[in-house]
Amino acid sequence: MARFTFGAGNARKLLRLPLYALGALTTLVVPRTNRLWVFGSGIGGGEGALALYRAARERVAGTRLVWLATNALQRGDFGGAQRFLEEAAQAAEVSGSKFQQWAVARARSREAIARGEHVNGVRFANDALALATEVGARRLIGLAHARLGDALFEAGEPAQSRTVLEQGRATVDRETMREAFVEIEWKLARAALAASDRSAALAHALAAREAAGHDLYSRATTAATLATVRAAEGDRVAADLLWREALALVEPTGYGALLADVRRDLGRALVQWGHVDEGRPLLEAARAFYADPLAERRRAEIDAILMTGAEPAAV
Hints:
The protein has helices at residues 6-15, 17-26, 49-59, 78-95, 98-115, 118-135, 138-154, 158-171, 178-194, 198-211, 216-233, 236-250, 256-272, 276-289, 296-308, and strands at residues 36-39, 64-67. By secondary structure, it is an all-alpha fold. The chain folds into three domains: 34-68, no CATH class; 74-211, Tetratricopeptide repeat domain (Serine Threonine Protein Phosphatase 5, Tetratricopeptide repeat, Alpha Horseshoe), CATH 1.25.40; 223-315. Strands 1-2 form a two-stranded parallel ribbon. The longest helix is centred in the N-terminal third of the chain and has 18 residues, at 78-95. 41% of the residues are buried. Residues 310-315 have low confidence and may be disordered.
């Protein structure tokens, strides 16, 4: 496969100038209205779009406000997510853009992980890492390592996950690649905890939480991860507070998959601690998110917790 170059990429853009012109002409005839405002963010709820949406909801009257979900996965529509990703994969292949192919492979891995399809999760994550390495962009390489580490952890390979995540951590810069740094740190905390290395798990969890900043998604994932570490240490009070902090952050948003994960983990911990009546509604709500037939494995995992209540809490 040929290595990406900016010269080749710019040449392809020049060839597409007629399409850009057609798009500009189309905007002249497509009906528009100032009564419909559309908001969205592909990199995090704390990057400004969500704050603007909330401010508009409070101050702007007579206008319909629409927040665009990141993707069908966050709505629990796994069938739709697969269809969109298949279309995206075809478009990325036709475009020849390695960046687009990387983005699709990474998204397909995330979708497979969410459904519990661990083999495909690892396969697509390896594809994403290969594409990122070919492009040579540090940010893409770091995020690809984070996804592969996630896939390996979910596939029951925490030692390999930790190795891959440590490689990713060596790639990213904390100041200029903050979101990648945070993601890798909290995933390293999980992997370290699986190896019974609690001191390292705590260090990674605290580093992730400190670096999360104002990004809502990062704040929620780091709070949930630190909750897992505190639960492993036997500090139930701190763990409970942290999981509920994560819930409070995620519940008002459209991050359905993350909300289901936090509900599952807090519910599992409560059942394990003997608070079955309090944990069961959380587990049932998490199970409802996975109602799509393609998410059968996730439903089975939650059913096992509901039946036994004996599994350890984990993010």
